[in-house]
Design goal:
Layout lengths: L1 H19 L8 E5 L5 H9 L4 E4 L2 H14 L7 E4 L8 H7 L2 E5 L2 H13 L4 E6 L13 H11 L5 E7 L12 H17 L8 E3 L6 H6 L4 E4 L1 H4 L2
Parallel strand pairs: 1-2, 1-8, 2-3, 3-4, 4-5, 5-6, 6-7
Helix pairs in contact: 4-5
């Protein structure tokens, strides 16, 4: 039952932050990042009310997707998120199972997603991954590349840009992560002011197990939580 208890504690923490910064708790989507976790553990997460599942690796995701969707009568209410780096040669498989690909880090990758989604007559929802801290070890567009890239990606017929995603650097003190979340929020606001898309981009996917409370304070509405949910 530890997973259920962990989720209850996370919800309580989210509620406290939201009340402090005057945000609606219902705006926040929790994604359970289930890298290395079993289908049984994912079932526990779903039973506890989280229906957004994040995966880092395509092969692992396919196995779990098949396992869970074959066993559940209401499998269609589960949303699958690709949150890890996606190679272009894995896109064909990715578009078959993921509701949202969060880690689109180049125009080339977006073009491949568009091509493969068109083959199965799908409009694929995506987020643009921004490497706000410009760390060499991380994927993502540089902040200054983001608006031009969104303009180009928006021309593709079979992808639908929903917002932005980032991974903040590992820091010694949580406050040090705040500027990175603030920067992504500002970038989203700039995009919406310039309107390269004909609709508003709404998703800010930022905040993980260590820093999600700071991310919420800076406008996150999608959290990617692994350890906080699964570790005992």
């Amino acid at each position: 039952m530890m997973i259920k208890e962990n989720i209850a504690k996370i919800r309580e923490r989210i509620g406290l932050v939201c009340s402090r910064v005057n945000r609606d708790y219902k705006e926040i989507t929790i994604i359970a990042v289930s890298k290395g976790r079993s289908a049984q553990e994912i079932e526990e997460v779903i039973e506890a009310g989280i229906t957004d599942i994040g995966e880092n690796k395509i092969q692992e995701a396919i196995l779990k997707y098949n396992d869970i969707t074959s066993q559940r009568a209401n499998a269609q209410r589960i949303k699958w998120h690709m949150v890890g780096h996606l190679q272009t040669n894995k896109v064909k498989e990715a578009v078959k199972i993921f509701d949202l690909i969060q880690s689109v880090d180049s125009l080339r990758l977006a073009q491949e997603i568009d091509k493969q989604a068109a083959k199965i007559n799908k409009i694929q929802d995506i987020l643009i991954e921004v490497n706000v801290a410009q760390e060499a070890s991380k994927f993502g567009l540089k902040p200054e590349e983001t608006i031009p890239a969104v303009k180009e990606i928006n021309k593709l017929k079979n992808v639908n840009i929903k917002g932005l995603m980032t991974i903040a650097p590992i820091v010694d003190h949580l406050e040090e992560s705040r500027p990175y979340f603030k920067k992504l929020k500002e970038l989203l606001e700039e995009l919406n002011a310039r309107r390269p898309t004909h609709y508003a981009l709404r998703i800010l996917s930022m905040g993980m197990s260590d820093d999600f409370e700071v991310a919420i304070e800076e406008g996150a509405n999608m959290l990617r939580l692994g350890r906080a949910i699964f570790e005992y």
